[in-house]
Design a protein that fits this description.
The chain is about 35% helix and about 15% strand. The radius of gyration is 32 Å and the shape is globular. It catalyses: ATP + ubiquitin + [E1 ubiquitin-activating enzyme]-L-cysteine = AMP + diphosphate + S-ubiquitinyl-[E1 ubiquitin-activating enzyme]-L-cysteine.
Length: about 900
């Protein structure tokens, strides 16, 4: 209910639950609560009373934090800042997240990326631990460091810049030796540069702690990376995939053992074998409505076998909704000590490299032993160091006995040895995203965590081996990259000419990565970036190059300035143009010919298709990528080698008939389609038509007369209604209009529909009219004490006032005062009419009456419209409202 209200509610910065009662002294809806931040005083204790620990764990699981007096309190969530996260994680997950304290040890490139992601996510506090100082080597992997920070402690050098990302997160530092007792203060601990011996000690402590403390150890070594997770002996995942429970509309159920349940065939069922489901609204076989979870034995596209004997149940008549039940899952993690011996199944992302994870499992252990014995990393290009590391791997493999690897890939180990000291920013950024998400899972119990070990390697090196002289450091900020790729490739990166399209969440990441890598930082290098959007508050939770003082400024300009602060050598130019056929005078042939590579950071398919077409025409490589919640995709397009982005398309989405959308919706997509259509019709298209008429009445009249059909007549009726019956001159008029809209949408139309087709109506063939997927509707009775109803009227009133240019009074922010104004609206009693035609097929769109001579009616409507125009103030124009997400 109130679907249009939910679409219109973007005007309102605060949201409240439907059904809440409006109080007299309630604060203004538009006024934000001031979020208070208190620094946590974490006292270390080796013994915690079991009851206190359990109470604290329960409070945390319910999104509660404990104050200094031991009392639990709800964590505040800045809904304007975290609106996108709330849509993906949900409110309860966010409450658990903002009550969590996290430790990150090792603030090199990987640690900085993890910290950045968690600060943006909005955890309660982050403690940064590092005993080392910033070196020139670090500047190619950590975007928080500058040359002025060289010699400073890494953790201390990061604090201020991290704090700018989110003032609601408390950020503190530890610069001394870390002990097991320190770990008891946190809900998750992450280590990015910890010896294996110390990691085993800390993990044993976290695993056996009550409650257990999720432990994550991760490393990035050149083009290789590893992640290990231990969330304790019993970790509960409340939601495995974060998706909404799947549903289906029942069409029939057999009286059988097991029973066959068939659903309407207009949508494919998403159930799987073994899923638990519950039934509701089933008529006839009412025994299924008991709320008891039942198991799906065999799932099919439009039906499933239910593991249930229905032979003794009542005969199925009609109706029914089947809904998936998402059960929590308990995972039993092994300790790091155990996983080193029995790692279990490795998580694979590249099935052409089945042998890599077991070998890398040994390689990372061998590297730890090498560092312990030699006190350093292997030197890039040193054959002696590479051979020593390989011998350590072979020795570890031989100690496995029957479980040893049959073959050791020495070429892979050579690559590992040469680059293992380097932390490459692209690798740090990717693993920082993976580990940041694992911390969110650990703190919230949402999404299935990594269980338990993952190794990744990438083929970014040339086929022929690099000369040792090419890997020698040059005493510059890019030495880490040179140790992996060589100085010749580094030079090519610096002289590259790159075009980034979009500077949102992905664009910010790309800019940061390129700046740290030194791309476009040479004398001939050039980076062009374009984006026609401006910064909003909701951007700040993921577009980390922006700050709250940048709100309202151009994204591309601010992002370019921030990238230069990361690497002052970057040569960048920012544009505020949308890349489209309309701007080919800006991005002309010369521009495209001079570009070496294009990177898309777009949010719509139309723009992607255009950029892809230009890249195909000019034969330019394209990096295409996109995100959707916690999901992502990437595609590398190389001319004459791979297919382009537009070569394959998703199948077109199935469009619901308009009669279904308007009169017989049966899923949320139908409701959203209807709401979007009403929004655009009332607030954008009709005001535009009004302005077109007022700008040139004679030309407008001539065009409609020549058209002379039912569509022109319908258009004129809407324009006349807007300037006559529905014309608003005061804000109270807007409230009246909105209140009557509510009555029309959610009461009168439903009453007319059910009057024409009663619940027991049948089709001409004798089949019940209200058969699946049609659902018999019930009219809503408006109540100003129901915030769901009140929000609809408030949002619609504000938008209507905007279209007519009517000032919005301050009292409209107060629910009680606004409710009083709504209650003063006189709502006429509705009587259903006979003879009203309701469309039940795809040939029309909504309720309509019998057609008459359209040309005569158009002439009459135009005459009335001209009379209305004479009553308007000189120069009157409406303000169309364009829908924005």
């Amino acid at each position: 209910r109130g679907v249009l209200g939910s679409v219109l509610l973007y005007m309102l910065p605060r949201k409240r639950s439907v059904g809440a009662v409006v109080e007299e002294d309630q604060e203004p809806i538009a006024e934000e609560a001031v979020q208070k931040k208190a620094k946590r005083d974490c006292s270390v204790s080796s013994e915690v009373a079991g009851s206190s620990a359990m109470e604290e764990e329960n409070n945390r699981a319910n999104g509660l934090e404990v104050d200094a007096n031991g009392n639990s309190k709800r964590s505040e969530i800045d809904e304007d800042l975290h609106s996108r996260q709330l849509a993906v994680y949900g409110r309860e997950t966010m409450r658990r997240l903002v009550a969590s304290n996290v430790l990150i040890s090792g603030i090199q490139g990987l640690g900085a990326e993890i910290a950045k992601n968690l600060v943006l996510a909005g955890v309660k506090s982050i403690t940064l631990h590092d005993e080392g100082d910033v070196e020139l080597w670090d500047l190619s992997s950590n975007f928080l460091f500058s040359e002025d920070d060289i010699g400073k402690n890494r953790a201390l050098a990061c604090v201020l810049k991290l704090q700018e990302l989110n003032n609601a997160v408390t950020i503190s530092t530890l610069t001394g030796t870390l002990s097991k007792e320190h770990l008891s203060c946190f809900q998750a601990v992450v280590f990015t540069d910890l010896s294996l011996e110390k990691a085993i000690e800390f993990d044993d402590h976290c695993h056996n702690h009550r409650p257990s403390i999720p432990f994550i150890r991760c490393e990035v070594r050149g083009l290789f990376g590893s992640v290990f997770c231990d969330f304790g002996p019993e970790f509960t995942v409340f939601d495995l995939d974060g998706e909404e429970p799947h549903t289906g509309i029942v069409a029939s159920i057999t009286s059988d053992n097991p029973a066959l349940v068939s659903c309407v065939d207009d949508e494919r069922l998403e159930f799987q074998d073994g899923d638990l489901v519950v039934f509701s609204e089933v008529q006839g076989m009412t025994e299924l409505n008991d709320g008891k979870p039942r198991k799906i034995k065999t799932a099919r596209p439009n039906s499933f076998i239910l593991d249930e004997d229905t032979t003794q149940f009542g005969a199925y008549k009609k109706g029914g909704i089947v809904t998936q039940i998402k059960e929590p899952k308990v995972l039993r993690f092994r300790t790091l000590r155990e996983a080193l011996v029995e790692p279990g199944d490795f998580l694979l992302s590249d099935f052409s490299k089945f042998g890599h994870p077991p070998l890398l499992h040994l390689a990372f252990q061998a590297l730890d032993k090498f560092r312990y014995e030699m006190g350093r990393f292997p030197v890039a290009g040193s054959e002696d160091d590479a051979q020593k590391l390989i011998s350590l791997v072979i020795s570890l493999n031989e100690s496995l006995g029957d479980g040893k690897l049959e073959e050791v890939d020495k070429k892979l180990l050579h690559h590992f040895a040469n680059g293992c000291k380097a932390i490459l920013n692209p690798m740090a950024a990717m693993f920082g995203g993976i580990v940041g998400q694992e911390v969110v899972k650990a703190c919230s119990g949402k999404f299935h965590p990594l269980f338990q070990v993952r190794y990744l390697t990438f083929e970014s090196l040339p086929a022929e081996p690099l000369e040792p002289s090419d890997l020698k450091p040059l005493n510059c900020r890019y030495d880490a990259q040179i140790s992996v790729f060589g100085s010749k490739l580094q030079k090519k990166l610096e002289e590259a000419k790159v075009f980034i399209v979009g500077s949102g969440a992905l664009g910010c990441e790309f800019l940061k990565n390129l700046a740290l890598m030194g791309v476009c930082c040479g004398q001939k290098g050039k980076l062009n970036i374009t984006d026609d959007d401006v910064i909003e508050k909701s951007n700040l939770s993921r577009q980390f190059l922006f700050r709250d003082w940048n709100i309202g400024q151009a994204k591309s300009t601010v992002a370019a300035s921030a990238a230069v602060s990361i690497n002052p050598s970057l040569h960048i130019e920012a544009f505020q143009n949308r890349a489209s056929p309309d701007t080919e005078n800006v991005f002309d042939d010369a521009f495209w010919e001079s570009t070496d590579v294009v990177i898309n950071a777009l949010d719509n398919v139309t723009a992607r298709m255009y950029i892809d077409a230009r890249c195909v025409y000019f034969q330019k490589p394209l990096l295409e990528s996109g995100t959707l919640g916690a999901k992502c995709n990437t595609q590398m397009v190389i001319p004459h080698l791979t297919e382009n982005y537009g070569a394959s398309r998703d199948p077109p989405e199935k469009q619901a008939p308009m009669c279904t959308v308007h009169s017989f919706p049966h899923n949320i997509d139908h409701c959203l389609t209807w709401a979007r259509s009403e929004f655009e019709g009332l607030l954008e298209k009709t005001p535009n038509e009004v302005n077109a008429f007022l700008s040139n009445p004679s030309a407008y009249a001539s065009a409609l007369k020549s058209q002379g059909d039912a569509q022109a007549r319908d258009l004129l009726e809407r324009v006349l209604e807007c300037l006559d019956k529905d014309k608003c001159e005061t804000f109270q008029d807007c409230i009246s209009w909105a209140r009557l809209r509510f009555e029309d949408y959610f009461s009168n139309r439903v009453k007319q529909l059910t009057f024409t087709f009663p619940e027991d109506a049948a089709t001409s063939t004798g089949v019940p009219f209200w058969s699946a997927p049609k659902r018999f509707p019930r009219p809503l009775e408006f109540s100003s004490s129901d915030l769901g109803h009140l929000h609809f009227v408030m949002a619609a009133s504000l938008l209507r006032a905007e279209t007519f240019g009517i000032p919005i009074p301050d009292w409209s922010k107060y629910p009680k005062k606004f409710a009083d104004a709504v209650d003063r609206v006189i709502v006429p009693e509705f009587q259903p009419k006979t003879g009203v035609k309701i469309v039940t097929d795809e040939k029309a769109t909504s309720l309509s009456s019998v057609s008459v001579d359209d040309a005569a009616v158009i002439s009459d409507l135009l005459a009335k419209l001209e009379e209305c125009a004479k009553k308007l103030p000189p120069g009157f124009r409406m303000n169309p409202v364009q829908f924005e997400k």
